[in-house]
Structures are given as structure tokens and as C-alpha cells.
Write a structure and sequence with these properties.
The protein is α/β, with parallel strands linked by helices. It has 2 domains: 4-162, Leucine Aminopeptidase, subunit E, domain 1 (3-Layer(aba) Sandwich); 176-494, Zn peptidases (Aminopeptidase, 3-Layer(aba) Sandwich). The protein is 34% helix and 21% strand. It contains 15 helices and 18 strands. The chain has helices at 32-37, 44-52, 88-100, 121-135, 164-189, 197-205, 219-225, 228-234, 288-302, 348-363, 377-382, 394-407, 418-421, 440-449, 484-494; strands at 4-11, 19-25, 29-30, 61-65, 74-81, 108-112, 154-161, 213-217, 242-249, 258-268, 308-318, 330-332, 338-340, 368-372, 387-391, 411-413, 431-432, 457-461. Helix 9 packs across helix 15 (484-494) and helix 10 runs parallel beside helix 14 (440-449). The longest helix has 26 residues, at 164-189. It is elongated, with a radius of gyration of 24 Å.
């Protein structure tokens, strides 16, 4: 099991234990609390900094094991550059960097959150968020470790701040969001023999304890609704498909909800259009969009967001079987529109088509945002640094882009247009489910757009950012939980006023 984190805040005067982490600005400038904490070591810091050519530049670090004159196992100095120029995400990354320096064998660590030019309560809370995000690990299925590896069962990390109450208040909402990210990461990292559609639905339903209203629709209920596109994807699996609807009612009763839809393909073989064997194990993460929606709704409920929100996830498993969907099949969606199946591996858009129409017609939301590990084409276009954003509404797109910059979960807007629709025209149905290699992520979005009517809508293709995700200061997990912080920020900034 990974080391458990116990995080707390304390006054700057608190006595540090175990590992001490202090912040240093350019020019070897320390806050008064840091200077006081290391005073007994004499000129140790100055000598160590000179030996290592450490000047406090952003991203640099200085480590001293068993510092003389101090009752500490380790002293770590993190360079922050010019603290007054640091942005919100810089403090989150700083917290992650601090957590990364604490040895796995440590049981206690103190971070003195006081650069020379001072720090605000919100910034200290951001630092604490970074600590929480970096502390996440998923190794619950490992039963053996190296004989020489020492790992503490729990590490107590104390963040020393000028005034505890305002930091604790600022951190409460961030802590709830961190829990949502951790839930999303857990879901994405789980193996597919553990997390299949029925189990995913059960875990989502467990969030009733937070005050969420949860409905789980089985195959019979979806057949009655006419969700033949979604059901077609899962018909070859031994595990039955599910549709889960989560509702958080934190706003006025008369207020339209905001809606989030997630693709939940618990495992994607490609179906009859089967994928190559190499790398197929990664397709356990093809439900990362649904994981984000569940994590987001947990976060909104836990922090008691003043908004009405709907989260809907279509959960299926795409398997080859005698009952599986075939290339050439034509399905009638809940909306009445028909889709010719050209490639059974273009399945996520079929799931989303029915869920988008269902949410739009039932809840009449202010907007709909869907998240999906939809196309490999978006990775070719944007790599793993940005998720692709498609939208029919400039205002919603702009708000999402700004939320991405604020949280570090960055988006890049991609085009939509009638010319791309021609690529998914079918000879036999209203549309076909793939338009070929050219503009693959765009034509997938064009198909989804046909199921949203005039409702403001955005589609976020997270294939490059949600699984096999970039390793950063705040994420060392294969599944990043991308989108939870982004969408929580969108709601907090614009839909809780």
C-alpha cells in the first residue's frame, strides 16, 4: 500500500520534525520563520548553497542530510525565484515539488510556507493542494517489494503558515477537489477485470452518501428509451451496459442545471474491428471521461457547490463476440437519427450520441460538456500537453480555455464546420460513425454535434491527457484525473454567482 498522507496546518512558530522544507527566493532570500528554524546550524545553508551553486532560482533545490546543529533528518531548500511573480499554478506545482522531496521512509515533515516576500492564504492553500495531488499513488495490487525498501505507513506533513484559520478555510474546497481527482485516478487505474460496467455503476451509486441523487439505468431501461447506439457497443460483452445519472442540487430550484457527460468504455478491444495486441492493455483507461465526471460530481457535492449539476456516464465494454456489433450495421439512436457502423472501434461517439440527447431532452441544461478519450488523432495533433476542445458556443469555449490556464489542465480549441460533415455522410443512413483518417478528431466531434441541438455544448477530447498521462510535479499516476480541476474551476468562476 502507498504511504498514507496526513496533512495539517500549524503556526510558523511550530517546531519542525523529521524533514524540514523551506522556501528560498533568488539571491538566497529566506522568510523570517525559515531563518529562525535553521539558525542553530550557523552558516551551514550559506556554505552548502555556495558548494552547489544554489541561488534560489525557480525549480532548483538544495538538500542537506542530517544537518549539523538541527534535530532534523533532512533539510530541503526549494528555490522559488521571485515569489511575487508566481501564479496560482506555480504554488500548486511548488507543493508537488515539496512532496516529491520527502523520502518514502519519512514519518514527519514540515513545510514552512513563507517566502521572503510573503504568501497569501489562498496561495498557501494552493501549495497544500499540490502536496495532496503529488502524494497520490496506486499500487494496491503489489504484494511484494524490494527487501531493502523502507516505506512509512503514514507521513504527517505539517504546513506552517502565518495564520492557520484563513488557510484552512481556503483549503477546504481544494481538499474536496483533490478527493475528486483521487477518485477519478483510482477509477482509471483499476484493472478491467475489477472495474467493469456494473461495478463502475455501483461505485458511482455509492456517492449517494454525499447527498447526490443517483439513478442507474440497466439495459431494459435503455432499450425502452431507444438508446440503440450505446447498447450496440456493449452487446458483445458478457458485462451489461449501464447509464448512470448523478445530480447535485446546490442551486435554486428554478435554476437550469449545468451538465457533464462522460464516455465510459471500461475496456475497448475495438470490437469486431479489433485493435492490435500491442498496447491494448491501456484500453482499461477508455473510461477516463466518465471517471472525470464522477470525480467532478463528488467534488461539487463535497464542497457544497451553489449550483445545480447533472453528471451522466454511459458505461459499456466493447468486446468481439458472436453477438457483437458488425461493420455495416445501422443503428437508430434515441434521437431517431440513424448511424451506419463503418468501424466498431469508433465506439465512443456512439455512446455519447445517446447520452447527449438523453441529457439534453430530459434536463434542458444551460450547457453540456462531454469528456472522452475519443480519438488517437487528437494525440497526433496536440501530443500529451493539451486536450482538444470543440465547441458550438464561443463564450463557453473561452471560459473553458481560461479555466484550463488557471488550473494547468490546458485546452486547445479545434475547428468545427459544415465542410467536415461531408466526411461522415452515409449512403445508407443519416451518417456513418467515422470519416476516415483525415481530421479524425474533428469528424468525431461533428457527429456529436448532431445530438446537441442548439444547447451550448463543448466536447473535450482527453485521449492524450487522461491516460498514459504526462508525469508532472503534481501527477505521477498513469491515470491523471484530467478534467476534474478544470471543470470545477469553470463552475466556481461562472456558475455559482
Amino acid at each position: 500500500m502507498p504511504t498514507a498522507l496526513k496533512l495539517e496546518f500549524a503556526p510558523l512558530a511550530a517546531t519542525p520534525k523529521g524533514v524540514l522544507i523551506v522556501l528560498c527566493e533568488e539571491g538566497l532570500k529566506y522568510g523570517s520563520a525559515a531563518r529562525k528554524a535553521v539558525a542553530a546550524s550557523g552558516d551551514l545553508l550559506a556554505r552548502a548553497a555556495a558548494a552547489e551553486s544554489f541561488k534560489g532560482k525557480s525549480g532548483s533545490a538544495l538538500e542537506i542530510v542530517a544537518p549539523s546543529g538541527l534535530d532534523l533528518a533532512r533539510l530541503i531548500v526549494l528555490g522559488v525565484g521571485k515569489a511575487r511573480e508566481l501564479k496560482e499554478q506555480d504554488f500548486v506545482k511548488l507543493g508537488g515539488a515539496a512532496m516529491s522531496k520527502i523520502p518514502s521512509s519519512a514519518t514527519a515533515a514540515t513545510i514552512i510556507a513563507e517566502p521572503a516576500s510573503g504568501i497569501k492564504a489562498e496561495q498557501a492553500a494552493d501549495l497544500a493542494l499540490g502536496v495532496r495531488l503529488r502524494a497520490y499513488a496506486f499500487d494496491r495490487y503489489k504484494t511484494k517489494r524490494k527487501e531493502d525498501e523502507e516505506r512509512a505507513k503514514e507521513v504527517k506533513v505539517t504546513i506552517a503558515v502565518a495564520s492557520v484559520p484563513p488557510v484552512e478555510k481556503a483549503f477546504a474546497a481544494r481538499d474536496a477537489v483533490a478527493d475528486g481527482v483521487a477518485l477519478a485516478r483510482d477509477l482509471i487505474n483499476e484493472p478491467p477485470n475489477v472495474l467493469y460496467p456494473e461495478e463502475f455503476a455501483r461505485r458511482a451509486a455509492s456517492l449517494k452518501k454525499l447527498g447526490l441523487q443517483v439513478e442507474v439505468l440497466d439495459v431494459a431501461a435503455m432499450k425502452k428509451l431507444g438508446m440503440n447506439a450505446l447498447l450496440g457497443v456493449g452487446q458483445g460483452s458478457a458485462h451489461e451496459s449501464r447509464l448512470v445519472v448523478l445530480r447535485w442540487n446546490g442551486g435554486k430550484k428554478s435554476s437550469e442545471p449545468v451538465a457533464f457527460i462522460g464516455k465510459g468504455v471500461c475496456f475497448d478491444t475495438g470490437g469486431i474491428s479489433i485493435k492490435p495486441a500491442s498496447g491494448m492493455e491501456d484500453m482499461k483507461g477508455d473510461m477516463a471521461g466518465a471517471a472525470c465526471v464522477v470525480g467532478l460530481l463528488q467534488a461539487l457535492a463535497a464542497r457544497k457547490a451553489r449550483v445545480n449539476a447533472v453528471g451522466a456516464i454511459g458505461i459499456v465494454e466493447n468486446m468481439p463476440d458472436g453477438k457483437a456489433q458488425r461493420p455495416g450495421d445501422i443503428v437508430t439512436t434515441m434521437s431517431g437519427q440513424t448511424i451506419e457502423i463503418i468501424n466498431t472501434d469508433a465506439e465512443g461517439r456512439l455512446v455519447l450520441a445517446d447520452v447527449l440527447h438523453y441529457v439534453n431532452t430530459r434536463f434542458k441544461p444551460k450547457f453540456m460538456i462531454d469528456l472522452a478519450t475519443l480519438t488517437g488523432a487528437i494525440i497526433v495533433a496536440l501530443g500529451h500537453e493539451h486536450a482538444g476542445l470543440f465547441a458550438n458556443d464561443d463564450k463557453l469555449a473561452d471560459r473553458l480555455l481560461k479555466a484550463g490556464l488557471a488550473t494547468g489542465e490546458r485546452l486547445w480549441r479545434m475547428p468545427l464546420g459544415a465542410d467536415y460533415d461531408k466526411k461522415i455522410d452515409s449512403k445508407f443512413a443519416d451518417m456513418k460513425n467515422t470519416g476516415g483518417r483525415d481530421g479524425g478528431s474533428i469528424t468525431a466531434a461533428q457527429l456529436l454535434q448532431r445530438f446537441v441541438d442548439k444547447t451550448p455544448w463543448a466536447h473535450i477530447d482527453i485521449a492524450g491527457t487522461a491516460m498514459s498521462s504526462p508525469q508532472t510535479d503534481i501527477n505521477k499516476s498513469w491515470g491523471s484525473g484530467f478534467g476534474v480541476r478544470l471543470l470545477d474551476r469553470l463552475v466556481a468562476d461562472h456558475y455559482e454567482k
